[in-house]
Design a protein that fits this description.
The protein is mostly helical. The protein contains four helices and no strands. The protein has two domains: 32 residues; 73 residues. α3 packs across α4.
Length: 105
């Protein structure tokens, strides 16, 4: 009977340790850092998950620069470009950055 109590105690302790690990792993997600700090692959994936299509010939560094600017000043004016597709993309980024900032602590 004492052995069963010891095994039960060890099982509860193991469960508590695993639960603590899962909880701490879940809290360290990408929302803990700025959107502009994501690596290229994660940034492109995040945009795709939010149905934002990246215009052709636009590099990840240009996207990251635009996002960093919007993180610093979300209501800044869009850059003046003759490329209508980029202007629409920039406005989609603005909405995404504002939404992302609301979920970050």
């Amino acid at each position: 009977m004492l052995r069963k109590k010891q095994i039960r105690g060890i099982a509860i302790l193991c469960f508590a340790v695993i639960l603590a690990g899962v909880i701490s792993a879940c809290t360290g997600g990408p929302a803990d850092r700025k959107l502009s700090e994501l690596d290229d692959e994660a940034l492109v994936q995040y945009l795709a998950e939010h149905d934002i299509s990246i215009p052709a010939d636009l590099e990840a560094s240009a996207i990251r620069d635009a996002i960093a600017g919007l993180e610093a000043e979300p209501d800044r004016d869009a850059p003046v470009v003759g490329w209508t597709e980029y202007a629409a993309f920039y406005e989609e980024l603005r909405g995404l950055v504002k939404a992302y900032d609301q979920i970050t602590p």
